[in-house]
Specification:
The complex is a heterotrimer of chains A (about 140), B (about 750) and C (about 260). With about 140 residues, chain A is α+β, with helices and mostly antiparallel strands. Chain A starts with a strand and ends with a strand. Chain A is globular, with a radius of gyration of 15 Å. Chain A has a single domain, classed as Mth169, Chain: A. Chain A has three helices and six strands. Chain B has about 750 residues and is α+β, with helices and mostly antiparallel strands. In chain B, the strands form four sheets. Chain B has a seven-stranded mixed β-sheet with strand order 8-10-7-11-9-12-13, with helices on both faces. A seven-stranded mixed β-sheet of chain B has the order 21-23-20-24-22-25-26, sandwiched between helices. In chain C, about 65% of the residues are buried. The radius of gyration of chain C is 17 Å and the shape is globular. Chain C has about 260 residues and is an alpha/beta fold. Helix content of chain C is about 20%, strand content about 25%. The chains are: A alpha+beta (about 140), B alpha+beta (about 750), C alpha/beta (about 260). Chains A and B meet through helix 1 of A and loops of B.
C-alpha cells in the first residue's frame, strides 16, 4: 500500500487566509503571513505522477482555474505549519482531509511550536470538533 | 470555431467590415472588443429578428425587454406603484465544464441584472436540464450535483430565497446541460434606476465597483457561442469566472444603501451590471444607450494581479462588478459608502469602488492604457445591432398514431408506481431542500407547498407575487411549436393554481446550432408557439435570453428547449391556495378537458412508446377555466389545488395526499370514481388517468359545493371526480393503493443523486 | 420607555431585515447595527445575532465573527446580564465566542454547531422546536408554556451539535438544552432531528439563562402569511407561529 499526500492551494487571492491573518494580529500574535492549504492523504495511491494526475482530474477537489496542486513528501506538517483535522467528519474511505495553516513572522521565519499552539487554541482549532497536528 | 491566428471567433467578413469602418487594421484590444460585442451571446445576431414576433406590451408592463431586466406592475401600497423586476438567463456552457462555479456564476449574474434596476432582490428560480445521472461515476452525475450545489452555495449566501424551479433528465442533455436562472426583484416605479447614462450626463464619472479585475473569464462571451468539444473543455475552463457570493452579499447591501442615498436626493443616475464583454461591454452600452461616448482609463481599474494585458482588463469577465454613471459631486459619497462604510477592500482582495472614466458627448468609445490609446471606435458601430440572416427549415412533426384507447396489459398499480418513480415525476425535495427557500422571511409558498412559489414582498401590505417556470423536453421532441405553447400554458397554469393573476412572462430559448437549418427551424417555430400562447393569455414577455450552440462536437444537439417563467400577482395574498389536501369528506373536481392524447406523456415514455400526438390547447376553454379558478380562489372556495403536469391526474392526486402522511398530521386519501363516470367513455381510462392535458384538481368543502358549482355553471370541463377520505389510500373505483407505499416509490429516485 | 435591542450585522449576515421586522411587530424597539458602527453597541439593552454567513464562515462557522470588535461589546454585555439571542449563524458565533454553553473561558469554545449528518449538506426544512427546560430557566423562555412547540425553519449546512461525551453530559445535566427537535404532534424521536444533532438539540442556553443560541429560524415562520394554512378568516399579516418565541424574548427585554 502506497500512501501519498498532496496540498491544494489557491492561485487566486486567498481571502480566508487574509482574514485569518488580520484576526491573529488582532489577538496580538506575531504573525506576518498566513498560508492555507487543503491537504489530502490517500491510501493505496499508486505511482506519484499518476496520483497527481488523478487528483487534478477530480473536479470536486481541484479546479485548474483556481487551484494549484503539489505532491508532498511527508505525511506531516512542515516547519511552521499545523494540520487541522475534523474529528467525526465523514471522509471517503481511504482518504483523510486536513486544513493546513502555515504561519510566518515578519522575517519570513516559520512559527515555532508554541506560537502554533497558541494560534490553534485561540482561533484555528475548536477542540469540540477538531484536532491540531503539529510538525 | 475560434480563428487560430487571432484567437477570436470573428468571421473573415466581420473582420473586413471592422477594418473598412476603422479605415485601418484594428488593434488587439479592438479585435477582442468586437469579438465580444459581435458574439452571438451579446449581439443576438442570428436570433434578434425572429424575437420581434413576441408580444412585449400590455397594461402590466412597466419596462419591456430593453434593459438588463423587465419590470411588471403588481399593485399599489400606500400610494406607491410597485413593480417586480424579472430577468432570466442561461449559464449552460460554463456549467457543463465547471458545474459548481458555472451555475453559481449564473445566479450571481442574474442577481446583478436585477439589482442594477434599483431593486431589492427577492427571489431566484432555477429550471435545470441534465443528462442521464444513473451512473454515479459519470460526468452527467457530476454536472447534476455540482450545478445544484453551486446554485445552493451562492443563493444561500447572498440571502435570496429560491422559490421555483424544475428539473428534467434526458440523454440528449448528456453533453449539454441547461442551467437557466431567473431572478426577481422588488422596486417602486418611482425609484427605478435605468441602465443608461441619463440626460445631461456629459462629463459624469464612470465608477466601477466590486471585485478586483483578474484574468478569469477572458473570452467568455465568444465561448458561450461555441460548440462544446470534449477536448476543448480543459482550455475552456480558463474562460469560466470565479464567483464570490460573500463579496456579492456585501455589494448588494452596499448598493441598497446607495439607492437610499439617491432617493434622499432625488437623483437620476445610470447603473448597469458587468456581464459579457466586461468593462468594455458594460461601459460602452450604458453610455451608448444614453447617446454618449466614453473615455476609460484602464490604469485606474483595481486589479487582482499585476501586469494584465489591456484586452484582459477591458474585456475579461471577472464576476461581482457593476458600473455606475454618477454626477461628479456625489462620486466621493458613493465611493465612501462602498469602500469605508461597507469596507469592500477588507471583504475581498482589492475589491473597491473606483472612478475609471468619463461620459463624453463625442460618440466615440476610447480606452487608454499606460499613456496610449488602445481603442478608439465609433460607439454606435461597436454596440449597434448586427444581423445574420441564416436559412432554416420547418421541423417535421411526426404524425400521431391516432386516437385508439391505449391497451398495455399492465396492472394499474404497477403503471402508477412506474410513473411515480419516473425521473420526470419523482420527488424533487432532495434537490430543492439544498436551497434556502425562506430567507428574507417573506415566503408564503415555498417549493413543494404549491405549484408556484409565492412571496409577500412588501412589508405591511397584502400584495403577493408568484413565480413558476415550465418547459417540457418530452413534448419538445415531438413538436417544438406546440411544446413552446405548452411551456407558456404550464407556467401560467401554475400561477393560476395557487390563486395568482398571471401578469407577464420571461423566456430563455435554449437551442442547438443556428447555422444548421433544421436547428434554426426549431427555434423559429418555437417563437411562433411562444408568441401565440402569450397573446392568448394576455401575458407579455418583459425579459429573456437566447442560448444557442447547445450542441456537442459530435453534432448532438439538445431537444428544443424554450423555457418560460410566469410572474403572478395577488392583490391580497390571503387568497393563496396551497397544494396539500386539508380534510376528509371534501369533493374533488377536475377542471380541464380529457383528451385521448398521451403523446409526450410520462406513461408512454415509461412504456417505451413514443408514437402519438401532443394534447391540444383550446385557449377559449382554458381562459374560461382560469377565470373560474380566479373567482373560486377569491371567494375562498378552494381548500387545495394542483395543476396537472408530468404524469397526469393520478400523480396530481398523489402529490396532494403525500404531505398529509407526515408524522403528526392526519392522513387524507382519495376515493376516485371510475373514470367512465365522468369521461362517459369519451377517452379510455388510461388516457383519463395519465394524459398530460393540463387543467387542475381542486378540493372543495362539501358545504361550498353549491357556491362552487354556481360559479362553474357556464364553464365547460368541470368534472366531479371523487372525494377525500380519512385513510391513507388512493382508491380508483374498487381498487385501493397504499399511499405510504406510493410515496416511498415517488420519494426514492433522486435521493441517491442528492443524498 | 421600552428597552433598545441591537440586531448585529456582520459582513455576510443575511437575515437582519426580517429579524428586526418581527422583533418590532412583537413590541421590541429593534435597530440594525452595522459592523462599521459597532461602537454604538454599549448603548443597547439586548443583542440579537441574526442568521447568514458572517465573514463567509472562514476557518469555521462563526470563528472570525466571534473575534470581531462587535463581539467585545456583546461579551461585555452578556457578563453584565444583558439578554443575548443568536439565530443560526448567530448561534454558531455565540458558541465560538464561548458564551454558550458558557462552560469554558470566553472565546474558547467547548461545543459546536457543525457539519450536518448523515450527509454534510445544507438543508432547508420545516421543523418544530419543543421547549426542553422549565420556562423559568431563562427570562427569554418565561413567556412560553411548559413543553411549548414552536414552528421554525432549519436552514443550515452546519447545525449538528457536537462536543465531547463529557461535555454533552454536562450540557444535559446542567439544563443547557433549551429546545429539542420534535414532530408536529410534540412527539420526540430520532426521525424528528434533521441533522443528527447530539441530544436532538436545537438550542442551547448558558448557565445564567441570559444567552440563548438557536439553530432554526422562528422568524421565517413568524407571520400568518408564512404558513397560510394557519389562517382563520382572511387575516394574514399578523405575527404568529414562531413569533411566540420572539414575543417571549421581547417581554424579557422590556421587563
Amino acid at each position: 500500500m502506497t500512501q501519498r499526500m498532496c496540498a491544494i492551494t489557491l492561485k487566486i487571492p486567498d481571502n480566508a487566509a487574509y482574514t485569518t491573518l488580520t484576526t491573529l494580529q488582532r489577538l496580538g500574535l506575531p504573525v506576518a503571513r498566513v498560508e492555507r492549504s487543503e491537504i489530502w492523504v490517500v491510501d493505496d495511491a499508486g505511482d506519484a505522477d499518476d496520483f497527481a494526475a488523478r487528483m487534478e482530474r477530480n473536479e470536486t477537489l481541484f479546479n485548474p482555474n483556481k487551484h494549484r496542486l503539489a505532491v508532498l513528501d511527508a505525511n506531516a506538517p512542515r516547519a511552521g505549519e499545523m494540520w487541522i483535522e475534523e474529528t467525526g467528519a465523514h471522509a471517503p474511505h481511504g482518504r483523510r482531509r486536513y486544513v493546513g495553516w502555515r504561519l510566518l513572522d515578519r522575517d519570513g521565519k516559520p512559527a515555532d511550536r508554541a506560537l502554533l499552539r497558541e494560534a490553534a487554541e485561540r482561533l484555528l482549532c475548536n477542540p469540540a470538533i477538531e484536532k491540531a497536528h503539529y510538525a | 470555431m475560434a480563428n487560430a491566428a487571432t484567437n477570436v471567433a470573428l468571421r473573415p467578413d466581420e473582420l473586413q467590415r471592422i477594418a473598412e469602418k476603422l479605415g485601418r487594421e484594428p488593434t488587439v484590444v479592438e479585435l477582442h472588443a468586437f469579438d465580444a460585442q459581435w458574439s452571438e451571446h451579446c449581439s443576438y445576431k442570428s436570433s434578434r429578428h425572429h424575437l420581434k414576433n413576441l408580444p412585449t406590451t400590455g397594461p402590466s408592463v412597466i419596462l419591456g425587454p430593453a434593459e438588463d431586466s423587465g419590470i411588471l406592475y403588481i399593485g399599489d401600497h400606500n400610494g406607491e406603484r410597485y413593480g417586480v423586476v424579472i430577468a432570466h438567463e442561461s449559464h449552460n456552457h460554463p456549467s457543463q465544464v465547471v458545474p459548481f462555479e458555472g451555475a453559481a456564476t449564473g445566479i450571481g449574474g442574474i442577481v446583478r441584472d436585477v439589482v442594477c434596476m434599483g431593486a431589492e432582490v427577492i427571489a431566484v428560480a432555477d429550471p435545470l436540464r441534465f443528462g442521464r445521472v444513473e451512473d454515479p461515476s459519470s460526468h452527467q452525475r457530476y454536472v447534476a450535483q455540482g450545478a445544484v450545489d453551486g446554485i445552493s452555495a451562492y443563493g444561500n449566501a447572498i440571502g435570496v430565497p429560491n422559490i421555483a424551479g424544475d428539473v428534467y433528465f434526458d440523454e440528449r442533455f448528456d453533453d449539454n446541460c441547461l442551467v437557466n436562472v431567473v431572478a426577481m426583484g422588488l422596486v417602486k416605479e418611482s425609484e427605478i434606476i435605468h441602465s443608461y447614462a441619463p440626460k445631461d450626463a456629459n462629463g459624469w464619472d464612470i465608477v466601477l465597483v466590486g471585485k478586483a479585475t483578474d484574468p478569469s473569464g477572458f473570452g467568455g462571451a465568444s465561448f458561450s457561442s461555441l460548440t462544446l468539444d470534449a477536448a476543448d473543455e480543459e482550455s475552456n475552463k480558463g474562460a469560466v469566472q470565479v464567483p464570490d457570493p460573500f463579496l456579492k452579499n456585501v455589494l448588494m447591501r452596499a448598493s441598497y444603501r446607495v439607492f437610499a442615498y439617491l432617493r434622499e436626493r432625488k437623483l437620476t443616475v445610470g447603473f448597469k451590471d458587468l456581464g459579457a464583454g466586461g468593462i468594455m461591454g458594460c461601459s460602452a452600452e450604458i453610455c451608448s444607450a444614453g447617446g454618449y461616448g466614453a473615455t476609460i482609463d484602464l490604469d485606474a481599474v483595481n486589479l487582482a494581479v499585476e501586469n494584465l494585458k489591456p484586452e484582459v482588463i477591458a474585456i475579461g469577465e471577472t464576476q461581482e462588478r457593476l458600473i455606475w454613471v454618477l454626477p461628479p459631486e456625489i462620486t466621493a459619497d458613493v465611493l465612501r459608502i462602498y469602500n469605508d462604510e461597507y469596507t469592500l477592500p477588507e471583504i475581498a482582495h482589492n475589491a473597491r469602488a473606483v472612478v475609471i472614466g468619463k461620459v463624453t458627448s463625442d460618440p466615440r468609445y476610447v480606452l487608454r492604457y499606460r499613456g496610449e490609446t488602445v481603442m478608439d471606435v465609433d460607439i454606435e458601430f461597436l454596440t449597434g445591432s448586427i444581423r445574420d440572416e441564416l436559412p432554416y427549415t420547418q421541423p417535421q412533426v411526426p404524425p400521431g398514431a391516432g386516437e385508439r384507447p391505449l391497451v398495455t396489459g399492465v396492472q394499474l398499480d404497477e403503471l402508477l408506481e412506474r410513473v411515480l418513480g419516473h425521473r420526470d415525476v419523482c420527488s424533487r425535495e432532495y434537490l430543492y431542500r439544498r436551497y434556502d427557500g425562506v430567507v428574507r422571511g417573506c415566503t408564503v409558498l415555498e417549493r413543494g407547498a404549491g405549484d408556484a412559489g409565492v412571496l409577500a414582498p412588501v412589508p405591511g401590505s397584502p400584495l403577493g407575487v408568484a413565480l413558476a417556470v415550465a418547459g417540457n423536453p418530452r413534448f419538445a421532441k415531438l413538436d417544438p411549436q406546440l411544446a413552446a405553447e405548452h411551456a407558456v400554458y404550464e407556467a401560467v397554469r401554475a400561477v393560476v393554481a395557487v390563486g395568482g393573476r398571471p401578469v407577464g412572462l420571461t423566456d430563455c430559448l435554449n437551442f442547438g446550432n443556428p447555422r444548421k437549418p433544421d436547428h434554426l427551424g426549431e427555434f423559429v417555430v418555437a417563437i411562433d408557439g411562444l408568441a401565440r400562447a402569450a397573446a392568448a393569455f394576455g401575458t407579455p414577455y418583459v425579459s429573456g435570453n437566447v442560448s444557442l450552440y447547445n450542441e456537442s462536437a459530435g453534432g448532438k444537439a439538445i431537444p428544443a428547449s424554450p423555457i418560460v417563467a410566469c410572474v403572478g400577482a395577488f392583490d391580497d395574498v390571503s387568497r393563496v391556495v396551497t397544494m396539500p389536501f386539508k380534510a376528509a369528506g371534501s369533493i374533488l373536481y377536475f377542471i380541464g378537458r380529457p383528451q385521448a392524447a398521451l403523446g409526450g406523456s410520462v406513461l408512454l415514455d415509461e412504456l417505451g412508446r413514443h408514437e402519438s400526438v401532443l394534447p391540444r390547447i383550446d385557449y377559449d376553454l382554458v381562459r374560461a377555466q382560469h377565470a373560474l379558478m380566479a373567482r373560486a380562489a377569491d371567494a375562498n372556495l378552494l381548500r387545495a389545488s394542483h395543476k396537472l403536469g408530468n404524469g397526469g391526474l393520478l400523480v396530481a392526486l398523489c402529490e396532494m395526499a403525500f404531505p398529509t402522511l407526515r408524522r403528526g398530521h392526519a392522513p387524507i386519501g382519495v376515493q376516485l370514481d371510475e373514470p367512465w363516470q365522468w369521461t362517459h367513455g369519451a377517452v379510455g381510462d388510461l388516457e383519463a388517468l395519465f394524459a398530460e392535458t393540463g387543467g387542475f384538481v381542486v378540493e372543495v368543502a362539501a358545504n361550498d359545493v353549491e357556491a362552487f358549482e354556481g360559479f362553474a355553471d357556464d364553464v365547460e370541463g368541470v368534472w366531479e371526480i371523487g372525494v377525500t377520505i380519512d385513510r391513507p389510500v388512493l382508491a380508483v373505483d374498487t381498487e385501493a393503493f397504499d399511499l405510504h407505499r406510493l410515496r416511498d416509490v415517488w420519494s426514492a429516485p433522486l435521493r441517491e443523486v442528492y443524498p | 420607555m421600552s428597552k433598545r435591542i441591537a440586531v448585529l450585522v456582520f459582513p455576510g449576515t443575511n437575515s437582519e431585515e426580517e429579524t428586526v421586522r418581527l422583533l418590532r411587530a412583537c413590541g421590541g424597539d429593534a435597530h440594525l447595527v452595522h459592523w462599521s458602527h459597532g461602537k454604538l453597541l454599549p448603548g443597547f439593552d439586548a443583542y440579537v445575532l441574526p442568521g447568514g454567513f458572517a465573514y463567509e464562515d472562514r476557518i469555521r462557522a462563526g470563528a472570525i465573527a466571534a473575534h470581531d470588535e462587535m463581539m467585545d461589546y456583546v461579551i461585555e454585555g452578556a457578563r453584565a446580564g444583558k439578554l443575548v439571542y443568536g439565530i443560526c449563524n448567530g448561534a454558531q458565533i455565540l458558541l465560538e465566542a464561548g458564551l454558550v454553553p458558557g462552560t469554558g473561558e470566553v472565546r474558547r469554545p467547548t461545543a459546536a454547531f457543525t457539519r450536518n449528518g448523515p450527509v454534510p449538506h445544507f438543508i432547508n426544512t420545516h421543523v418544530w422546536l419543543k421547549l426542553a427546560v422549565d420556562p423559568q430557566r431563562s427570562p427569554m423562555l418565561r413567556g412560553l408554556e411548559r413543553d411549548a412547540l414552536i414552528p421554525a425553519w432549519a436552514s443550515h449546512g452546519e447545525g449538528r451539535l457536537a462536543a465531547s461525551e463529557a461535555e454533552l453530559r454536562a450540557l444535559r445535566e446542567g439544563g443547557h438544552v433549551a429546545f429539542v427537535y420534535a414532530h408536529a404532534d410534540g412527539s420526540v424521536d430520532d426521525t424528528a432531528i434533521p441533522n443528527q444533532a447530539a441530544l436532538g438539540c436545537a438550542a442551547l442556553v448558558n448557565r445564567e439563562g441570559n444567552v440563548l443560541a438557536m439553530m432554526p429560524h422562528p422568524e421565517r415562520d413568524g407571520w400568518t402569511f408564512n404558513h397560510p394554512d394557519r389562517r382563520r378568516g382572511n387575516a394574514i399579516l399578523e405575527p404568529s407561529g414562531g413569533a411566540v418565541f420572539f414575543r417571549s424574548f421581547v417581554q424579557a427585554v422590556n421587563a
